[in-house]
């Protein structure tokens, strides 16, 4: 088969579409013939040599895919060859074939095309596990083992990078539970797209101080929950933007890895900070998250209340071009890589 390999750490030019050995599914795994994958920031970090895949996993980038099941490993009875699926991956999605643990495989939601479905696994699982919960028997607003942020109806969520793949999904799911949503983005066009998805408070971070803007829009209260992809650069201001009993969920480090935290401000607000990554979670945790997404999020997609947002489709053999688009933030939603 062919896959996108990283010849050496560097810019997009180090991505090469080349022949590699076919993967073979082991116990509890399925082999998927890939229809499409998607570009995530983690893929860019891996290409730059800053985010190695976990030991024993595929060396190729790609944390999600859609396609058809081509083979079943021993012990897999819940799927059949030919089923159309999408899957959360630890790596390897930029390829014609990929292995996925059975617990990380999802059916294609109603009304979503097979290529388009590649935009769903990473964003739905990331947003769910940070803002809502992992698994339970209740509705979207309750969970037994829940995320530290635990967004509730009537609360205000601030999403940094509202026009990103994560951001566009967070807006929709937050609105589905009855929350108010504030977003930051760098252009009027991107903010308009966020508003179309339901965002209530629009902040152009190039022109406005998001702390002041969110406080003004909430009558001085601040955001109950912040979903942050920036990390160190926004740490101090995020704490200032939090409401009393607020929760800050850090899921990225685009703004650096080391910041100064005012413990006094955090104590005064009785606030909490959590930081998570999805890729390195144990298989059991990821399977629980995927199961919860299927139970709680898939019905919203089936009903048309939530949808994947796709900016463009790029041939997988031209992954370098797709990486350039994402690195330049020249997109809204997801950039997909379509296999031959």
TrEMBL record:
<protein>
    <submittedName>
        <fullName>NADPH:quinone oxidoreductase</fullName>
    </submittedName>
</protein>
<dbReference type="InterPro" id="IPR036291">
    <property type="entry name" value="NAD(P)-bd_dom_sf"/>
</dbReference>
<dbReference type="InterPro" id="IPR011032">
    <property type="entry name" value="GroES-like_sf"/>
</dbReference>
<dbReference type="GO" id="GO:0016651">
    <property type="term" value="F:oxidoreductase activity, acting on NAD(P)H"/>
</dbReference>
<dbReference type="Pfam" id="PF08240">
    <property type="entry name" value="ADH_N"/>
</dbReference>
<keyword id="KW-0521">NADP</keyword>
<feature type="domain" description="Enoyl reductase (ER)">
    <location>
        <begin position="10"/>
        <end position="337"/>
    </location>
</feature>
<dbReference type="InterPro" id="IPR013149">
    <property type="entry name" value="ADH-like_C"/>
</dbReference>
<dbReference type="InterPro" id="IPR020843">
    <property type="entry name" value="ER"/>
</dbReference>
<dbReference type="GO" id="GO:0070402">
    <property type="term" value="F:NADPH binding"/>
</dbReference>
<dbReference type="Pfam" id="PF00107">
    <property type="entry name" value="ADH_zinc_N"/>
</dbReference>
<dbReference type="InterPro" id="IPR014189">
    <property type="entry name" value="Quinone_OxRdtase_PIG3"/>
</dbReference>
<keyword id="KW-0560">Oxidoreductase</keyword>
<dbReference type="InterPro" id="IPR013154">
    <property type="entry name" value="ADH-like_N"/>
</dbReference>
């Amino acid at each position: 088969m062919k896959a996108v390999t990283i010849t050496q750490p560097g810019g997009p030019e180090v991505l090469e579409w080349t022949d590699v050995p076919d993967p073979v599914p082991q116990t509890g795994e399925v082999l998927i013939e890939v229809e499409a994958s998607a570009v995530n920031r983690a893929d860019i970090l891996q290409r730059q040599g800053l985010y190695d895949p976990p030991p024993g996993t595929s060396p190729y980038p790609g944390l999600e895919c859609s396609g058809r099941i081509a083979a079943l490993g021993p012990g897999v009875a819940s799927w059949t060859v030919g089923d159309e699926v999408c899957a959360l991956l630890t790596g390897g999605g930029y390829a014609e074939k990929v292995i996925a643990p059975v617990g990380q495989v999802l059916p294609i939601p109603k009304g979503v095309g097979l290529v388009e479905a590649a935009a769903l696994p990473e964003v739905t699982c990331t947003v769910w596990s940070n803002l809502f919960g992992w698994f339970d028997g209740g509705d979207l607003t309750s969970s037994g083992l829940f995320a530290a942020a635990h967004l509730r109806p009537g609360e205000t969520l601030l999403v940094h990078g509202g026009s990103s793949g994560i951001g566009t999904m967070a807006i929709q799911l937050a609105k589905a539970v009855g929350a108010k949503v504030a977003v930051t983005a760098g252009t009027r066009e991107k903010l308009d797209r966020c508003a179309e998805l339901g965002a209530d408070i629009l902040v152009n971070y190039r022109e406005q101080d998001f702390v002041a803007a969110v406080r003004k829009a909430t009558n001085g209260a601040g955001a109950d929950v912040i979903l942050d992809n920036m990390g160190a650069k926004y740490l101090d201001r995020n704490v200032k933007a939090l409401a009393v009993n607020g929760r800050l969920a850090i899921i990225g480090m685009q703004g650096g890895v080391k910041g100064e935290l005012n413990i006094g401000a955090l104590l005064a607000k009785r606030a909490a900070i959590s930081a998570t990554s999805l890729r390195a979670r144990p298989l059991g945790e990821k399977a629980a998250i995927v199961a919860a997404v299927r139970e709680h999020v898939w019905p919203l997609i089936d009903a048309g209340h939530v949808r994947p947002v796709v900016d463009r489709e790029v041939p997988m053999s031209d992954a370098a071009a797709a990486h350039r688009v994402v690195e330049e933030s020249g997109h809204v939603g997801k950039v997909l890589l379509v296999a031959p």
